[in-house]
Automatic annotation (TrEMBL):
It comes from the Bacteria. Residues 55-148 form the Methyltransferase type domain. GO terms for molecular function: methyltransferase activity. It holds the Pfam family Methyltransf_11. GO terms for biological process: methylation. Keywords: Methyltransferase, Transferase. InterPro entries: Methyltransf_11 (IPR013216), SAM-dependent_MTases_sf (IPR029063). Its EC number is 2.1.-.-. It is an enzyme of class 2 (transferase). This is Class I SAM-dependent methyltransferase. Transmembrane segments: none annotated.
Length: 264
């Protein structure tokens, strides 16, 4: 019998583990803010078939599988967490190559990709690392390549700085990750200064922990497994409810966003 590789941060207790790995531990497979639906929108917003694809931070390998379903000419996943790399490797079998590296400096060849994908990984970086990762995506892409991004964003564009700060603090406190979402115009500026043109933008509610989205993302059996695991683990339940409260408290100002970016 083959056993699954351990999840990242498996040695940490439910109080200190990063929110996305806590959710994975209780059985959640979809860890990105706009859910499976926004990932599917992204994958179909640009041609993947026959293209060389690099994915930053594949996590549990869900989008890796969506991408491989489109028959790219190659798939390379890059995650800084060796355990995440093992989880994705096991999810995709022999369907692609996996590299343990930071997306800031992947070690891959310049102009070696037609499509770069990154979901739920830029928001958690500070300003200078966000920039380095976007510049690395531009370096990896061949001319006319596409960078597909799925992240958290703040709305509206002119949101008061004091509300931005409060949201960032609440996210950091409940997720235990220094999450710094940007407004759509701040994200666009970051991409444009690194040499991208914004081709399409798609907003979705941030409904990661809402029952209807969880049912759509995880299915009946998956949702039942998550509920059962949470009923059995009081510490995990407390953390998940605190994360959910942060998302619902700020739901007027937090969205998921997908960007299709063309390398100029
Ligand atoms: C919230 S999870 C998202 C995983 C997956 N993209 C998804 O949407 O389900 C964040 C992932 O980013 C990875 N990560 C964080 N910083 C990274 C970096 N600088 N380079 C590569 N991967 C990174 C983590 O190891 C983790 O797999």
């Amino acid at each position: 019998m083959t056993s699954s590789p351990p999840l990242p941060q498996h040695e940490r207790d439910s109080e200190s583990v990063a929110g996305h790995w806590l959710l994975a531990r209780v059985g959640k497979k979809v860890l990105r803010p706009g859910g499976r639906e926004l990932s599917e929108w992204l994958v179909h917003a640009s041609t993947v078939t026959g293209k060389r694809v690099v994915e930053f931070a594949p996590g549990l390998g869900l989008t890796a599988s969506l991408l491989l379903d489109e028959s790219p000419s190659s798939y390379t996943g890059v995650d800084s967490d060796p355990e995440a790399v093992e989880v994705t490797r096991s999810a995709i079998g022999g369907g692609g190559a996996m590299v343990v590296a930071s997306a800031r400096e992947t070690g891959l060849e310049s102009a070696s990709a037609d499509v770069v994908v990154g979901e739920a990984m830029l928001t958690m970086q500070g300003d200078s690392t966000k920039r380095q990762i976007v510049v690395e995506a531009a370096r990896l892409l061949d001319s006319d390549g596409r960078y597909l991004v799925h992240e958290l964003c703040l709305v509206p564009d002119d949101l008061d700085d004091s509300i931005k700060t409060e949201i960032r603090k609440d996210l950091a406190r409940s997720i235990r990750v220094n999450a710094r979402p940007l407004t759509v115009s701040e994200w666009s500026e970051l991409f444009e200064t690194a040499g991208f043109e914004v081709e399409a933008t798609e907003l979705r509610p941030m409904a990661l922990l809402q029952p209807r989205r969880m049912l759509a993302d995880e299915g009946v059996v998956g949702l039942a497994r998550i509920v059962r695991n949470l009923l059995r683990d009081a510490d995990a339940r407390k953390r998940v409810l605190a994360m959910r409260k942060t998302f619902t408290t700020h739901d007027e100002h937090i969205n998921a966003v997908g960007f299709v970016l063309r390398k100029r």
